[in-house]
Amino acid sequence: MDVYEAVASRRSVRRFTDRPVPREVLERVLSAAVWAPSGSNLQPWHAFVLTGEPLESVKKRAGARLAAGDPWDEPEYEQYPAHLKSPYQERRSAFGEQRYGSLGIPRADVEARQRAASANWDCFGAPAAMFCYVDRDLGRPQWSDVGMFLQTVMLLLRAEGLHSCTQMAWAKFHRTVAETVLPPRDLTLFCGMSIGYECPDAHPTRTGRAPVRETVTFVDC
């Protein structure tokens, strides 16, 4: 798979089979992903990969909290501005319409949307997950570096025939994740990433993108 094909076929998959992901594949992907760029080569990412019983434990703990109606953990960073301006709010709304529309859930059915969203904390059935942390003392440029690392991981997973879904949702249950991975106290959970093989009957959808002319400006001589 060449790079263009990997980019074109990468999407956020939200239904996985239970087929195990071989440890050697994950090690191969992450050994290559460390070559992702970072300012002054700080390499500010800290990743924890869970499979088997440890991952099931995290899922069960999160599921129990959902069932009990426990509130989300105190946020460690702002996922979105309180008031998204145009065109970002429109893009977010369009994503929601497509995401839940593909599941046959109307906008007014808030309860059904919440049930669908709760699948985040089961990693959409994926047999492997990566939880990515960043040192809380670092700044926005280093968070950007973490994003480049995550993108590199996702493209390499495609080269291995795997799919993924990055999930900031896990930051809402960062205490639950910490009970299993035991991260150093100076780290903040940025996101989780579900990893596995896509379910054949998942009915994949891919959110559209703005035309290049809306996000890119060519300044020619």
UniProtKB/TrEMBL annotation:
Keywords (A to Z) from UniProt: Flavoprotein, FMN, Oxidoreductase
Pfam families: Nitroreductase
Domain Nitroreductase per the UniProt entry, residue ranges: 7-197
Database matches in SUPFAM superfamilies: FMN-dependent nitroreductase-like
Domain of life (superkingdom): Bacteria
Any GO MF annotation of the entry: oxidoreductase activity
Name recorded for this polypeptide: Nitroreductase
Organism taxonomic ancestry: Bacteria, Bacillati, Actinomycetota, Actinomycetes, Kitasatosporales
